[in-house]
Amino acid sequence: MEVTRKNFKEILPLVSESIEKADFLAIDAEFTGLMNGRDVSIFDSPAEYYIRLYNGASEFLLIQYGVCAFYWNDKKQHYLNEAYNFYLYPRRPGPEKMFLCQSSSLDFLASQGFDFNKLIKEGISYMTETTESRLRDMLAERQKNYSTEKDLISIPEQHKQQIADICKKVRKFLDDKDSDCIEIDRCNNFVRRLLFQELAQFKNEAFVETKVLENQNRILKVTRLKEGDDVTSKDNQKKEKEWEELDDAVGFSKVARMISQSGKLVIGHNMLLDVLHSLNHFFQPLPEDYGSFKEFTHCMFPRLLDTKYMSSLPPFKDKINSSVLQHLFTTLSDEPFALPKADSENGRGYNRTEEKHHEAGYDAYVTGLCFLAMYSHLSRMRGEQTARLKDPTCPVLKPFLNKLFLAKTAHQDSPYMNLVGADPTPSRDHVFHLTFPLEWQRNDINQLFSPFGPVTVQFLDDVSAIVALSRREQARDVARALAKNSKVTLIPFVKFKHKITSSKVQIDNRRQTSPVKQVCVLSVLALLFFVFLCPDTNLLCPFI
Amino acid sequence: MEVTRKNFKEILPLVSESIEKADFLAIDAEFTGLMNGRDVSIFDSPAEYYIRLYNGASEFLLIQYGVCAFYWNDKKQHYLNEAYNFYLYPRRPGPEKMFLCQSSSLDFLASQGFDFNKLIKEGISYMTETTESRLRDMLAERQKNYSTEKDLISIPEQHKQQIADICKKVRKFLDDKDSDCIEIDRCNNFVRRLLFQELAQFKNEAFVETKVLENQNRILKVTRLKEGDDVTSKDNQKKEKEWEELDDAVGFSKVARMISQSGKLVIGHNMLLDVLHSLNHFFQPLPEDYGSFKEFTHCMFPRLLDTKYMSSLPPFKDKINSSVLQHLFTTLSDEPFALPKADSENGRGYNRTEEKHHEAGYDAYVTGLCFLAMYSHLSRMRGEQTARLKDPTCPVLKPFLNKLFLAKTAHQDSPYMNLVGADPTPSRDHVFHLTFPLEWQRNDINQLFSPFGPVTVQFLDDVSAIVALSRREQARDVARALAKNSKVTLIPFVKFKHKITSSKVQIDNRRQTSPVKQVCVLSVLALLFFVFLCPDTNLLCPFI
C-alpha cells in the first residue's frame, strides 16, 4: 500500500493495527546514496566499519521506507501480510535539510521505477525527537510573543512610496466595503515584512496573512474582520494551524516510534544502513562512539534479525551462491527450500505474483518471505511442524539475533556486528601489510607469494597493500622467507594497525596541547633572549 | 525546445546554428540548492561574497540549463528567438558525483512543475575539460593494456564449484552449436570478474561481455564467434563503443564551450550563480582566489550582462519596485516601458503567450525580453530608432557590461562585482560594529540610535551586530555620543574588518609555524629542566 502525505493521516491507524497484530515486521529503506569518501575496507573491524559509515553515509537522505507486517491466520494455517510503502521527504516547519546524493544511486533508483516527482511533492515529512522537542519549545515561545510589541524596521527611502500607496489602497478597501478581502502581489520578502509592520495600524478592522499560491509565489491577503470574529479568534486559529503543521512535519517518525515501542522482531536484509538511517533521521543524531551506537540501537530496536547474515551461516552458506536479495529469493524458491504462502487478504499487502524489486515495501515483503523460508528450513531440520514463529528468541533463531551483517568484510571470519555482546575478534595472523617498489603491479605481488598459495590483495596506495594468505598455516613461513627480501617490507597486520592507531593518538594529543605550547614558546623565547642576548647580566643566577 | 539525452545528438547542430546567427544569448540555470552554511552578509565586499559562494554553493548540482538565442529578422524588423531547455545529469563513464541538495529548493522546483524523473532518467551528462582530458588519457591507456595479460585473481574456495559448473556449461554450449549465445545470470560483481578471467580459455571460440538489463541487473553474455568475425574486430568494436560513451558523457559541456567560443553577449538575470556553476561544472573547478576567478570568468565569457544589475540603476531603479524576474517582466510590460516582439517562428523558441516560469529555457527567454525592453528604453531616451542591438559595447550598454549583481548586498552602494576592473569600495563611514548587553533586543538598538535617525541592523550573535545609519552625515556625532556609553562598545566597521582579517592572518601564521614550535617546546622543557631541577649543577654557566 502506497503512503504519501496525501493519505498518511488516514492510513496511520491502519499501520498501528498492522504492527499490533504482527508476529514480526520486515523493513527496507531506500537512500539518496550509499557511501561518500573512502569505502569500508575488507579488514575493517566492526568498530572501524561503524566509524566509516558514520562519516561517509549519514549525510544521505532516507527517501522510501517499507514496512511489512506478517500476522498469523489460524484458519488458513499460514501467514498473511500487510505492507506499507512510505515516500519520505523532510518539510517545513521541520528544519531545512542539506543532504547528499550519489549520482549513480539516483540513477539506479530511477531505472527501477522510483518516482522522484512523487517523492518531492508528496513525501511524508519526518524529524528526530531532539528536533521535535526543540521546535515545540520554539513555537510555544514564539506564540507567547505574538501579542507583545515587535521590533520596528525603518522603511528605506526607495520603498516609502510603494508602502504608502499600499496602505492607501487598504484604507480604501476598508472604507468602500465592496469585497471581503484583497490580495497584494508583486512584493518581495522584505516588502512583505514592512507591510506586516505598517498594516498593523488596521489591526482592529482587518486581518493580514501570507498566502502561498499554487506556484509557491507568496502574496499578502488582507481580510476584513466581520462582526463577531475578532482578532483574538483569528489569532487562535492561526496558532492551532501552526501546531497542526508541526505535527504533520513530525510525520513518519511516529511510525518509526511505533515500531520501536512494539518491541517486535524486526527483519531486514543487509540492514545495517537501514538501522543507521532510521536512528539518525527518526530518533536522534548517531553517536560518534561505537559502543554508544550499539547500546542506542539495542535500546530502540531490541530484536533485530538480518537475513543476509542468516544466509551467510550454515546450513545456508553452501547452498546459496549469491545473497543479493533477488538471488536469495530465487534460490529459496527451489529445493531443498520452499517459500511459504504469505499473501495479502485485504489489498493492503503484496502477493507473490507482483514483481516490484527495489520498491521498499516489496523488498521488505520479500525479506520476510526469505526469512520464513530459512526459519522453516531450520525448524524442519529439528523435526518441528508448525510454520508459525511464536518466540523470536527460540533456539533456532538465537544465533542470528541482534547481529548485523557487514557486507564488505564478508570473506572474513567476522562479517557481523554483535549488538548485545562483544564483537568477534578473528585471527589476523595470516594478514600482512606489504610495502613494495613503485613499479610493481598485482601480478608481482601474486608472484612473490606464489610459493605460499593464493592471496587476497587490497591496495592502500602505489607502494603498499594489505595481503591475506588463503593458506593460513603458511603465515610463519612467509614472514621468515620475506624477511630477507630487500625489495619489500612485510609487517604483521596487527602490528600495522597498532602503529596507525598510536600515531593517531599522538596527533590528537599534539592538537590538544596547543595552548600550553604557546605559553611554552613564549617562555623559551624569553629565556633564550636572556641567555643569548644578555650575556653580561646575572638575571638567571637566582634560579641556579 | 526540450533537450534530453534522447535527442541531444540530433539537436546539437541546431544549437550551434542558433548561437551562430544570434545577436545575443540569454541563459538561465536551475540548481539543487542555493547556499549551504552561513549566508552572504549585507556588508560583504565582492571578494568576501565570492569566497562565501565558493564555500557554500559549489557542491550543488546544475540540473537545468536554458539557452535562448535572439536573432534579427530584417524583413519583420524585430527579433526572433530559438530557445533550448536542457535537462542535465552527470553520468558514467564520467566520474561518480556526490552533490548536495537543499530540501526547500527541490520542493520549490517540484511545485513549479520541474520533472525530476525526466532529469534523472534523461538528463544530459557533462564534465569539466580537466576531467575530460584525464578520462581520455585513462581510456587510451586502458585500451592499450587490453591485449596484454591481466593480473590473476585466485578463486576462493566457496566459489570454485560455481565457476567450474559455469565453465562446463559454456563448453557444452560451444560444442552443441544449438544457439548463438547464452546468458549467465545470478552472479554478483566478484563472480562476474572471476568468470571473465576463467572464460578467457575460450577466447578463440567465444566473446564474453557484460550486458546491462533494463532493470540494471548485470549479466554475462557469451557469444559464439562465427567464421569471419575474429576476436580483434570484436575488440575494436568494443573500443569504439567506449570512445562513443565517453563522448556522450562530455555531453552538454560542448554547448557551454560553444557559447564561450562564440564570444557573444550573454545575458542573465541575477546571473552570478549561473556563471559560477557554469564554470565549475563545464570548464574547470573554481579557483579559490577571487582575482583568478574574475580573470577566469572574463576569459570564458568575455561579454556578460546582468539584467538585475541593469534594473537597479537609473533610469530604471525608481520605476521598478521589485526586480524578481517575474515582477520585472510585468513592470516592463507597462508604460513607460514596452516589451518588444520576439516570437518564435519554427517552434524552436517561446512565445509571449506561454507561461513557464522557472523552466530555465523560458526564464532565459523572459530575461532576453526584459533586456530588450530596457535597451530600447535607453535607446529611445537617446533618440535612436532601431530596436536592433548591433554592438554590445555601445555607449548605452557599457555601464552594465561585465558587472554581476550581488543580490544580498543590494542596499549598499556597491551591489556588483566588476569583472574587468577594480570593484567599488563604497564608504563605510556610516557603518559600525556594536557590542551590547546580552538582554538587549533589536528595539534597544533602535532606541540607542534613535537620535541619529533610522538604522539597519545585522546581528552577528547575541551580543554584537553590524549597524548602518541611514543618515550618513550623523556618523561622527554617533561615534562621539556613544563613546561615553558604558553599556555598549562602538567600533567603526573598517577597523572591525581589519581586526578580523589580521587575527585570521595570525592564526594562519601560527598554524604554519607549528613544526618550529615543537622544537621550541622541547627546548623550553629541556631548559626548564636544567633551571629548576638541577639547581646545583653548573650546566647553564657556559651560556652566561
UniProtKB/TrEMBL annotation, chains A, B:
CDD domains: RRM_PARN
Domain Poly(A)-specific ribonuclease RNA-binding stretches: 421-498
Highest taxon in the source lineage: Eukaryota
Listed InterPro entries: CAF1_poly(A)_ribonucleases, Nucleotide-bd_a/b_plait_sf, PolyA-riboNase_RNA-binding, R3H_dom_sf, RBD_domain_sf, RNase_CAF1, RNaseH-like_sf, RNaseH_sf
Pfam family, one: RNA_bind
Family listed: Belongs to the CAF1 family.
Official protein name in the record: Poly(A)-specific ribonuclease RNA-binding domain-containing protein
Native source species: Chilo suppressalis
